[in-house]
Amino acid sequence: MPRKTVPDLLRMKAENQKIVMITAYDWTMARLVDTAGVDMVLVGDSLGMVVQGGEDTLSVTVDDMVYHGRCVARGLRQAHLTVDMPFMSYQVSPAQALANAGRLVQEGRAQSVKLEGGERSAPAIRAIVEAGIPVVGHVGLTPQSVHALGGYRVQGSDEAGAEQLLRDARAVQDAGAFCVVLEMIRENVAARITESLDVPTIGIGSGAACDGQVLVCNDLLGLDAAFKPRFVKRFAELEGAVIGASRAYAEEVRTGAFPSAEHAFQARGPAHLRRVY
Ligand code: KIV
Question: Is 0.90 topped by the overall pTM?
């Protein structure tokens, strides 16, 4: 099956089909979520927190995104690959934005790039799109602006804020983005934005009216039991499963129950020795 393209994703909005996006950061997870049939895989700069263990996304570099993009790309057969542009990789000038977007496509194997910001990011989006690189916008809560926003808060709470979000989403679309992520926007405002745009909206913490949804894979898989924001639904509880399996392994190594004869190689001849995995 060929990888999903921008026209495929635009068609999904036109045909009222919900778009499913999930993050992945390595080959193993990419292969699994692709097999599940998701439409888009995002190598999010959330990797600064869930992979690198940072307190925010601000330390992530273009080199990090290139590396993880390449790993994820190898695991995809049918899903579209979007790679995030990290903090300070597009804010300096449209020329800087284009050069870094080019690296994410050329070296990171992205089919599209995502960058944060509404009206203020329009010149960067325009420059990238004019070079033939598809762009996903991202408005509402933009985690790279955490210090300016004063925390990870719901956006668009008053009429002025809602109007600004609408202007931001339109600016991103008018600059050429083929899709816009709406993060932590009140449901009624996200619905207004979704209705007023021709391109699909992908919501996270922005309610059901969006044209699609995105979640961080670690969150929906329950890999961190202590992290449970309201907008996350856990579809599995893997933290307990991983700790349980690791404890069982440790116990068996310590007691000598593992490895047993079935996991060891007996001296039977060269043909058996050749196939280790
Ligand atoms: O970095 C990320 O994972 C994201 C999604 C949460 C939309 O931007």
Answer: yes
